[in-house]
Design goal:
With 167 residues, this protein is of the alpha+beta class. The protein contains three helices and twelve strands; from the N terminus they run βββββββαβββββαα.
């Protein structure tokens, strides 16, 4: 009988595959286990949305997204959000509000997505972190409806965080 938490059947530095069989199920049911993730809806003083553009190998294209990243062991979600904001955009915020915590996919993933709101971000001066290579940032100057029509804006986590922020 398998452990109800699941048996790790494959491991990488970024995720593990669990065989997590519900009672009475004879076939394996695989779930993906990885660290929780933060995503930040950030605005500048003019109310413009801060976005990042980068190449994503999984979808083989440049994407336009809210900035996001994994929560490292020993790090709080808020600390991770502040770190990712700096590493991907070079910006900082005094205020960081938790909007919601959701599952990226209840069918396959065990981790959670922590969505934050950061109003009034400003260029930062931190010396303790290094900016992430290959990530461009920009402020989006158009209505959100235009952003949803952008062919590069396809990240479900970005959609979820925006939806939580609008609500």
């Amino acid at each position: 009988q398998l452990n109800p938490e699941g048996e790790i059947v494959y491991r990488t530095p970024w995720f593990q595959i669990l065989d997590r069989r519900p009672p009475g199920m004879d076939q394996p049911y695989y779930a993906i286990q990885s660290s929780d993730v933060v995503v930040i809806v950030a605005l500048n003083d003019q109310g413009q949305l801060l976005l990042v553009r980068q190449f994503r190998p999984a979808v083989a294209m440049m994407t336009l997204e809210l900035h996001a990243g994994h929560i490292e062991p020993g790090e709080t979600p808020e600390d991770a959000a502040r770190k990712e904001l700096w590493e991907e955009t070079g910006h900082e915020t005094g205020t960081l509000e938790l909007l919601t915590k959701v599952s990226p996919s209840t069918a396959r993933f065990t981790n959670r997505l922590w969505c934050f709101f950061a109003p009034n971000v400003k260029p930062g001066s931190r010396q303790d972190l290094t900016r992430e290579a290959g990530v461009e940032f920009r402020f989006y100057e158009h209505p959100l409806t235009s952003l949803l029509a952008e062919k590069e804006f396809i990240s479900a986590s970005s959609y979820a965080a925006l939806f939580a922020a609008v609500l």
